[in-house]
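FIELD: query
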Amino acid sequence: MTAYLITSVSVVGAAPTDLLIRDGVVAEVGPGLSAPDATVVDGTGLVALPGLVDLHTHLREPGREDAETVESGSRAAALGGYTAVCAMANTSPVADTAGVVEQVWRLGREAGLVDVQPIGAVTVGLAGERLAELGAMADSAARVRIFSDDGFCVADPKLMRRALEYVKAFDGIIAQHAEEPRLTEGAQMHEGEVSTRLGLIGWPAVAEEAIIARDVLLTEHVGGRLHVCHVSTAGSVEVLRQAKARGVRVTAEVTPHHLLLTDERAETYDPVFKVNPPLRTAADIAALRAALADGVLDVIATDHAPHAVEDKECEWAYARPGMLGLETALSIALDVLGPQWDLIAERMSRTPARIAGLTGHGVDPAPGVPANLTLVDPAARRTIEPAELASRSRNTPYARMTLPGRIVATFLRGEPTVLDGKAVK
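FIELD: result
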Protein backbone atom coordinates (compact mmCIF):
# COMPACT_ATOMS: atom_id res chain seq x y z
CA MET A 1 0.00 0.00 0.00
CA THR A 2 1.45 3.34 -1.10
CA ALA A 3 1.98 6.08 1.48
CA TYR A 4 0.84 9.62 0.66
CA LEU A 5 2.02 12.90 2.13
CA ILE A 6 -0.46 15.72 1.60
CA THR A 7 1.33 19.01 2.25
CA SER A 8 0.00 22.42 3.31
CA VAL A 9 -3.65 21.42 3.32
CA SER A 10 -6.40 23.02 5.41
CA VAL A 11 -8.27 20.38 7.42
CA VAL A 12 -11.95 21.40 7.50
CA GLY A 13 -10.97 25.06 7.09
CA ALA A 14 -8.24 25.18 9.74
CA ALA A 15 -4.69 26.51 9.27
CA PRO A 16 -2.60 24.64 6.69
CA THR A 17 -0.83 21.49 7.88
CA ASP A 18 0.49 18.19 6.51
CA LEU A 19 -1.25 14.81 6.47
CA LEU A 20 0.64 11.53 6.22
CA ILE A 21 -1.43 8.57 5.05
CA ARG A 22 0.04 5.13 5.61
CA ASP A 23 -1.46 1.61 5.73
CA GLY A 24 -4.97 2.91 5.15
CA VAL A 25 -5.07 5.38 8.04
CA VAL A 26 -3.98 8.92 8.78
CA ALA A 27 -0.63 8.25 10.42
CA GLU A 28 0.41 11.81 11.32
CA VAL A 29 -0.97 15.34 11.21
CA GLY A 30 1.23 18.39 11.66
CA PRO A 31 3.38 20.98 9.87
CA GLY A 32 6.68 20.05 8.28
CA LEU A 33 6.15 16.29 8.07
CA SER A 34 8.70 14.22 6.16
CA ALA A 35 8.26 10.78 4.60
CA PRO A 36 10.81 9.91 1.90
CA ASP A 37 8.85 6.83 0.82
CA ALA A 38 5.55 8.68 0.39
CA THR A 39 4.02 10.07 -2.76
CA VAL A 40 3.63 13.82 -2.25
CA VAL A 41 0.33 15.53 -3.00
CA ASP A 42 0.53 19.32 -2.96
CA GLY A 43 -2.39 20.52 -0.86
CA THR A 44 -1.67 24.23 -1.11
CA GLY A 45 -4.95 26.10 -1.29
CA LEU A 46 -6.95 22.90 -0.81
CA VAL A 47 -9.36 21.92 1.96
CA ALA A 48 -9.41 18.37 3.35
CA LEU A 49 -12.84 17.09 4.37
CA PRO A 50 -13.90 13.73 5.74
CA GLY A 51 -15.06 11.70 2.75
CA LEU A 52 -18.61 12.62 1.80
CA VAL A 53 -21.43 10.18 2.57
CA ASP A 54 -24.69 10.08 0.60
CA LEU A 55 -27.81 8.65 2.24
CA HIS A 56 -29.81 8.62 -1.00
CA THR A 57 -28.34 7.27 -4.23
CA HIS A 58 -29.99 5.34 -7.05
CA LEU A 59 -27.49 3.00 -8.74
CA ARG A 60 -30.12 1.20 -10.89
CA GLU A 61 -28.29 -2.15 -10.85
CA PRO A 62 -29.69 -4.78 -11.08
CA GLY A 63 -32.16 -4.19 -13.87
CA ARG A 64 -31.49 -0.80 -15.44
CA GLU A 65 -27.82 -0.96 -16.29
CA ASP A 66 -28.56 1.20 -19.34
CA ALA A 67 -29.07 4.13 -16.94
CA GLU A 68 -26.40 3.35 -14.33
CA THR A 69 -24.39 0.51 -12.82
CA VAL A 70 -22.92 0.15 -9.37
CA GLU A 71 -19.49 0.72 -10.94
CA SER A 72 -20.41 3.83 -12.96
CA GLY A 73 -22.37 5.30 -10.07
CA SER A 74 -19.48 4.59 -7.72
CA ARG A 75 -17.11 6.38 -10.07
CA ALA A 76 -19.43 9.38 -10.21
CA ALA A 77 -19.58 9.35 -6.41
CA ALA A 78 -15.79 9.26 -6.03
CA LEU A 79 -15.43 12.15 -8.47
CA GLY A 80 -17.94 14.03 -6.34
CA GLY A 81 -15.82 13.51 -3.22
CA TYR A 82 -17.84 10.62 -1.76
CA THR A 83 -16.36 7.61 0.00
CA ALA A 84 -19.69 5.95 0.86
CA VAL A 85 -23.17 5.91 -0.66
CA CYS A 86 -26.43 4.27 0.40
CA ALA A 87 -28.07 2.59 -2.61
CA MET A 88 -31.86 2.76 -2.81
CA ALA A 89 -33.96 -0.36 -3.22
CA ASN A 90 -35.96 0.45 -6.38
CA THR A 91 -33.95 -1.84 -8.63
CA SER A 92 -35.30 -4.69 -10.78
CA PRO A 93 -35.64 -7.06 -9.04
CA VAL A 94 -36.38 -4.87 -6.03
CA ALA A 95 -33.87 -5.06 -3.18
CA ASP A 96 -36.41 -6.68 -0.85
CA THR A 97 -34.51 -9.88 -0.05
CA ALA A 98 -31.15 -10.77 1.44
CA GLY A 99 -30.00 -12.08 -1.93
CA VAL A 100 -30.51 -8.82 -3.82
CA VAL A 101 -29.00 -6.54 -1.17
CA GLU A 102 -25.98 -8.83 -0.96
CA GLN A 103 -25.62 -8.65 -4.76
CA VAL A 104 -25.54 -4.84 -4.66
CA TRP A 105 -23.12 -4.88 -1.71
CA ARG A 106 -20.74 -7.28 -3.49
CA LEU A 107 -20.85 -5.25 -6.71
CA GLY A 108 -19.81 -2.23 -4.67
CA ARG A 109 -16.92 -4.12 -3.11
CA GLU A 110 -15.79 -5.32 -6.54
CA ALA A 111 -15.84 -1.77 -7.94
CA GLY A 112 -13.77 -0.60 -4.96
CA LEU A 113 -14.40 3.11 -5.53
CA VAL A 114 -16.74 3.87 -2.63
CA ASP A 115 -18.38 1.79 0.08
CA VAL A 116 -21.83 0.90 -1.25
CA GLN A 117 -24.31 0.29 1.56
CA PRO A 118 -27.62 -1.12 0.27
CA ILE A 119 -30.95 0.21 1.53
CA GLY A 120 -33.59 -2.51 1.71
CA ALA A 121 -37.21 -2.15 0.65
CA VAL A 122 -39.83 -1.76 3.36
CA THR A 123 -42.47 -3.72 1.44
CA VAL A 124 -42.33 -6.59 -1.03
CA GLY A 125 -41.86 -5.23 -4.53
CA LEU A 126 -42.38 -1.67 -3.21
CA ALA A 127 -46.07 -2.49 -3.49
CA GLY A 128 -47.00 -1.21 -0.04
CA GLU A 129 -48.97 -4.34 0.85
CA ARG A 130 -46.78 -6.50 3.13
CA LEU A 131 -43.43 -6.14 4.82
CA ALA A 132 -40.31 -7.34 3.03
CA GLU A 133 -37.67 -9.58 4.63
CA LEU A 134 -36.40 -6.84 6.94
CA GLY A 135 -34.76 -9.18 9.44
CA ALA A 136 -33.10 -11.31 6.77
CA MET A 137 -31.66 -8.24 5.09
CA ALA A 138 -30.40 -6.95 8.45
CA ASP A 139 -28.70 -10.29 9.13
CA SER A 140 -27.19 -10.58 5.64
CA ALA A 141 -23.59 -9.82 4.71
CA ALA A 142 -24.79 -6.35 3.69
CA ARG A 143 -26.03 -5.67 7.25
CA VAL A 144 -28.87 -3.42 6.08
CA ARG A 145 -29.99 -0.87 8.65
CA ILE A 146 -32.03 1.57 6.55
CA PHE A 147 -35.20 0.54 4.73
CA SER A 148 -37.14 2.61 2.21
CA ASP A 149 -39.71 2.25 -0.56
CA ASP A 150 -38.36 5.50 -2.04
CA GLY A 151 -40.22 6.38 -5.20
CA PHE A 152 -43.34 5.25 -3.38
CA CYS A 153 -44.77 6.22 -0.03
CA VAL A 154 -45.56 3.62 2.62
CA ALA A 155 -49.07 5.04 2.62
CA ASP A 156 -50.78 2.47 4.85
CA PRO A 157 -50.39 3.76 8.43
CA LYS A 158 -50.80 0.29 9.94
CA LEU A 159 -48.01 -1.08 7.74
CA MET A 160 -45.80 1.92 8.51
CA ARG A 161 -46.31 1.38 12.23
CA ARG A 162 -45.40 -2.31 11.93
CA ALA A 163 -42.24 -1.43 10.01
CA LEU A 164 -41.16 1.14 12.60
CA GLU A 165 -41.75 -1.41 15.37
CA TYR A 166 -40.03 -4.29 13.58
CA VAL A 167 -36.73 -2.56 12.93
CA LYS A 168 -36.38 -1.48 16.57
CA ALA A 169 -34.95 -4.96 17.25
CA PHE A 170 -31.72 -4.00 15.45
CA ASP A 171 -31.93 -0.18 15.76
CA GLY A 172 -32.99 0.12 12.14
CA ILE A 173 -34.44 3.15 10.38
CA ILE A 174 -37.43 3.55 8.10
CA ALA A 175 -36.73 6.21 5.46
CA GLN A 176 -40.00 7.55 4.12
CA HIS A 177 -40.81 9.03 0.73
CA ALA A 178 -43.42 11.43 2.09
CA GLU A 179 -46.20 11.67 -0.48
CA GLU A 180 -49.90 11.07 0.14
CA PRO A 181 -50.67 9.34 -3.18
CA ARG A 182 -54.34 10.31 -3.23
CA LEU A 183 -53.33 13.97 -3.28
CA THR A 184 -50.81 13.64 -6.12
CA GLU A 185 -52.66 11.58 -8.73
CA GLY A 186 -51.55 12.79 -12.14
CA ALA A 187 -49.36 15.51 -10.63
CA GLN A 188 -46.67 16.93 -12.89
CA MET A 189 -45.08 19.70 -10.82
CA HIS A 190 -45.52 21.82 -7.68
CA GLU A 191 -49.07 23.05 -7.17
CA GLY A 192 -48.99 26.81 -7.29
CA GLU A 193 -48.99 29.88 -9.50
CA VAL A 194 -46.65 28.36 -12.11
CA SER A 195 -48.61 25.11 -12.46
CA THR A 196 -51.82 27.08 -12.89
CA ARG A 197 -50.26 29.24 -15.59
CA LEU A 198 -48.83 26.22 -17.41
CA GLY A 199 -51.98 24.14 -17.08
CA LEU A 200 -50.17 21.24 -15.38
CA ILE A 201 -51.69 19.20 -12.56
CA GLY A 202 -50.09 20.27 -9.29
CA TRP A 203 -48.37 18.30 -6.51
CA PRO A 204 -49.51 20.14 -3.35
CA ALA A 205 -47.12 20.77 -0.48
CA VAL A 206 -49.64 19.32 1.97
CA ALA A 207 -49.23 15.88 0.36
CA GLU A 208 -45.70 15.80 1.78
CA GLU A 209 -46.47 17.55 5.04
CA ALA A 210 -49.41 15.32 5.97
CA ILE A 211 -47.35 12.12 5.69
CA ILE A 212 -44.47 13.59 7.68
CA ALA A 213 -46.88 14.68 10.43
CA ARG A 214 -48.48 11.22 10.51
CA ASP A 215 -45.17 9.39 10.57
CA VAL A 216 -43.72 11.63 13.26
CA LEU A 217 -46.69 10.71 15.47
CA LEU A 218 -46.30 7.01 14.67
CA THR A 219 -42.58 7.17 15.43
CA GLU A 220 -43.22 8.95 18.69
CA HIS A 221 -45.84 6.35 19.62
CA VAL A 222 -43.68 3.28 18.98
CA GLY A 223 -40.31 4.79 19.90
CA GLY A 224 -38.77 3.95 16.54
CA ARG A 225 -36.41 5.77 14.18
CA LEU A 226 -37.69 7.71 11.18
CA HIS A 227 -35.75 9.37 8.39
CA VAL A 228 -37.57 11.68 6.00
CA CYS A 229 -36.29 11.67 2.44
CA HIS A 230 -35.92 14.77 0.23
CA VAL A 231 -37.82 17.34 2.30
CA SER A 232 -39.03 20.08 -0.02
CA THR A 233 -41.49 22.45 1.68
CA ALA A 234 -41.48 25.11 4.37
CA GLY A 235 -44.42 23.40 6.04
CA SER A 236 -42.47 20.15 6.31
CA VAL A 237 -39.67 22.04 8.04
CA GLU A 238 -42.08 23.29 10.70
CA VAL A 239 -43.50 19.81 11.33
CA LEU A 240 -39.95 18.49 11.77
CA ARG A 241 -38.95 21.41 13.98
CA GLN A 242 -41.81 20.69 16.37
CA ALA A 243 -41.11 16.94 16.37
CA LYS A 244 -37.45 17.44 17.22
CA ALA A 245 -38.37 19.83 20.01
CA ARG A 246 -40.43 16.97 21.51
CA GLY A 247 -37.52 14.56 21.25
CA VAL A 248 -38.92 12.37 18.46
CA ARG A 249 -36.19 10.23 16.87
CA VAL A 250 -36.51 11.72 13.40
CA THR A 251 -33.84 12.86 10.95
CA ALA A 252 -34.34 14.48 7.58
CA GLU A 253 -32.51 15.24 4.36
CA VAL A 254 -32.67 17.89 1.68
CA THR A 255 -31.36 17.58 -1.87
CA PRO A 256 -29.04 20.03 -3.63
CA HIS A 257 -31.67 20.76 -6.27
CA HIS A 258 -34.31 21.65 -3.69
CA LEU A 259 -31.83 24.12 -2.22
CA LEU A 260 -31.20 25.88 -5.52
CA LEU A 261 -33.87 25.41 -8.21
CA THR A 262 -37.47 26.67 -8.17
CA ASP A 263 -40.65 25.52 -9.90
CA GLU A 264 -40.18 28.31 -12.44
CA ARG A 265 -37.74 25.99 -14.23
CA ALA A 266 -40.77 24.03 -15.44
CA GLU A 267 -41.72 26.96 -17.68
CA THR A 268 -39.27 25.61 -20.26
CA TYR A 269 -41.04 22.23 -20.27
CA ASP A 270 -37.55 20.70 -20.19
CA PRO A 271 -38.04 17.28 -18.52
CA VAL A 272 -34.62 17.49 -16.90
CA PHE A 273 -36.34 19.66 -14.28
CA LYS A 274 -39.04 17.08 -13.54
CA VAL A 275 -38.35 15.50 -10.16
CA ASN A 276 -40.25 13.90 -7.27
CA PRO A 277 -40.93 15.69 -4.99
CA PRO A 278 -41.12 18.59 -7.43
CA LEU A 279 -39.11 21.76 -7.40
CA ARG A 280 -40.88 24.20 -5.08
CA THR A 281 -40.97 27.99 -4.60
CA ALA A 282 -38.35 30.55 -3.59
CA ALA A 283 -40.03 30.77 -0.17
CA ASP A 284 -39.62 27.02 0.30
CA ILE A 285 -35.96 27.25 -0.69
CA ALA A 286 -35.37 29.97 1.89
CA ALA A 287 -36.98 27.83 4.61
CA LEU A 288 -34.95 24.77 3.60
CA ARG A 289 -31.68 26.70 3.67
CA ALA A 290 -32.44 28.11 7.12
CA ALA A 291 -33.40 24.66 8.41
CA LEU A 292 -30.19 23.17 7.03
CA ALA A 293 -28.16 25.80 8.84
CA ASP A 294 -29.89 25.34 12.19
CA GLY A 295 -30.00 21.53 12.08
CA VAL A 296 -33.71 20.86 11.61
CA LEU A 297 -32.57 19.33 8.32
CA ASP A 298 -29.73 16.98 9.21
CA VAL A 299 -28.08 16.17 5.90
CA ILE A 300 -27.70 17.04 2.26
CA ALA A 301 -28.48 13.89 0.24
CA THR A 302 -28.26 13.81 -3.53
CA ASP A 303 -31.21 11.64 -4.60
CA HIS A 304 -28.92 10.87 -7.57
CA ALA A 305 -31.44 9.49 -10.08
CA PRO A 306 -29.95 8.60 -13.47
CA HIS A 307 -32.30 7.85 -16.37
CA ALA A 308 -31.75 6.51 -19.87
CA VAL A 309 -32.24 8.95 -22.75
CA GLU A 310 -35.61 7.52 -23.80
CA ASP A 311 -36.97 7.95 -20.26
CA LYS A 312 -35.99 11.60 -19.99
CA GLU A 313 -35.76 13.20 -23.41
CA CYS A 314 -39.46 13.05 -24.22
CA GLU A 315 -42.64 15.01 -23.51
CA TRP A 316 -42.85 16.37 -19.97
CA ALA A 317 -45.89 14.27 -19.03
CA TYR A 318 -44.16 11.02 -19.99
CA ALA A 319 -40.69 11.77 -18.64
CA ARG A 320 -39.57 9.96 -15.53
CA PRO A 321 -38.75 12.17 -12.53
CA GLY A 322 -35.19 12.48 -11.29
CA MET A 323 -31.85 14.25 -11.66
CA LEU A 324 -28.16 13.43 -11.41
CA GLY A 325 -26.50 14.71 -8.26
CA LEU A 326 -23.34 12.94 -7.12
CA GLU A 327 -20.78 14.88 -9.15
CA THR A 328 -22.21 18.32 -8.41
CA ALA A 329 -23.51 18.12 -4.82
CA LEU A 330 -20.51 19.67 -3.10
CA SER A 331 -20.45 22.53 -5.60
CA ILE A 332 -24.13 23.25 -4.93
CA ALA A 333 -23.44 23.16 -1.17
CA LEU A 334 -20.64 25.69 -1.64
CA ASP A 335 -22.85 27.86 -3.80
CA VAL A 336 -25.67 27.79 -1.23
CA LEU A 337 -23.72 27.81 2.05
CA GLY A 338 -20.44 29.43 1.08
CA PRO A 339 -17.16 28.10 2.52
CA GLN A 340 -18.66 27.02 5.85
CA TRP A 341 -16.46 23.96 5.95
CA ASP A 342 -17.49 22.64 9.35
CA LEU A 343 -21.16 22.89 8.43
CA ILE A 344 -20.54 21.21 5.08
CA ALA A 345 -18.59 18.41 6.78
CA GLU A 346 -21.41 17.97 9.30
CA ARG A 347 -24.24 17.87 6.76
CA MET A 348 -22.47 15.89 4.03
CA SER A 349 -20.22 13.51 5.97
CA ARG A 350 -20.37 13.24 9.75
CA THR A 351 -24.13 13.18 10.25
CA PRO A 352 -25.04 10.94 7.29
CA ALA A 353 -22.32 8.47 8.33
CA ARG A 354 -23.71 8.45 11.86
CA ILE A 355 -27.29 7.91 10.66
CA ALA A 356 -26.24 5.05 8.40
CA GLY A 357 -23.95 3.52 11.02
CA LEU A 358 -20.96 3.58 8.66
CA THR A 359 -17.97 3.09 10.95
CA GLY A 360 -14.80 4.75 9.69
CA HIS A 361 -16.66 7.30 7.58
CA GLY A 362 -17.62 10.81 8.58
CA VAL A 363 -14.57 11.27 10.80
CA ASP A 364 -12.29 14.29 10.40
CA PRO A 365 -8.69 13.48 9.41
CA ALA A 366 -6.68 12.78 12.59
CA PRO A 367 -3.98 10.30 13.66
CA GLY A 368 -5.30 6.74 13.66
CA VAL A 369 -8.47 7.55 11.72
CA PRO A 370 -9.23 5.57 8.51
CA ALA A 371 -8.06 7.69 5.60
CA ASN A 372 -11.46 8.32 4.01
CA LEU A 373 -11.17 11.90 2.84
CA THR A 374 -11.55 14.29 -0.02
CA LEU A 375 -9.51 17.30 -1.13
CA VAL A 376 -11.39 20.31 -2.49
CA ASP A 377 -10.14 23.34 -4.38
CA PRO A 378 -12.55 26.06 -3.22
CA ALA A 379 -11.10 28.68 -5.58
CA ALA A 380 -11.80 26.67 -8.71
CA ARG A 381 -14.90 27.13 -10.81
CA ARG A 382 -16.10 24.66 -13.39
CA THR A 383 -18.72 24.59 -16.10
CA ILE A 384 -20.82 21.42 -16.02
CA GLU A 385 -20.71 19.56 -19.32
CA PRO A 386 -23.05 16.53 -19.33
CA ALA A 387 -20.84 14.56 -21.73
CA GLU A 388 -17.95 14.78 -19.26
CA LEU A 389 -19.85 13.24 -16.34
CA ALA A 390 -18.97 9.72 -15.20
CA SER A 391 -22.59 8.63 -14.89
CA ARG A 392 -24.06 6.61 -17.73
CA SER A 393 -26.91 9.11 -17.86
CA ARG A 394 -26.90 12.79 -18.76
CA ASN A 395 -29.95 14.19 -16.95
CA THR A 396 -28.20 16.92 -14.99
CA PRO A 397 -30.16 20.11 -14.30
CA TYR A 398 -26.86 22.01 -14.04
CA ALA A 399 -25.76 21.61 -17.67
CA ARG A 400 -23.52 24.50 -18.72
CA MET A 401 -23.87 26.17 -15.32
CA THR A 402 -20.61 27.42 -13.77
CA LEU A 403 -20.32 26.24 -10.18
CA PRO A 404 -17.75 26.79 -7.42
CA GLY A 405 -15.33 24.18 -6.14
CA ARG A 406 -13.53 21.21 -7.65
CA ILE A 407 -12.75 17.79 -6.19
CA VAL A 408 -9.00 17.31 -6.59
CA ALA A 409 -8.59 13.97 -4.82
CA THR A 410 -10.60 11.34 -2.96
CA PHE A 411 -9.10 8.63 -0.77
CA LEU A 412 -10.85 5.45 0.34
CA ARG A 413 -9.00 3.79 3.23
CA GLY A 414 -5.76 5.39 2.12
CA GLU A 415 -6.01 4.47 -1.55
CA PRO A 416 -6.79 7.24 -4.06
CA THR A 417 -9.93 6.79 -6.13
CA VAL A 418 -9.49 10.27 -7.62
CA LEU A 419 -6.23 12.19 -8.22
CA ASP A 420 -5.81 15.50 -10.03
CA GLY A 421 -9.55 15.57 -10.51
CA LYS A 422 -9.61 12.31 -12.48
CA ALA A 423 -10.76 8.82 -11.55
CA VAL A 424 -7.82 6.53 -10.83
CA LYS A 425 -9.59 3.47 -12.27
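FIELD: remark
Residues 4-47+367-423 form a domain with the Urease, subunit C; domain 1 fold (CATH 2.30.40.10).
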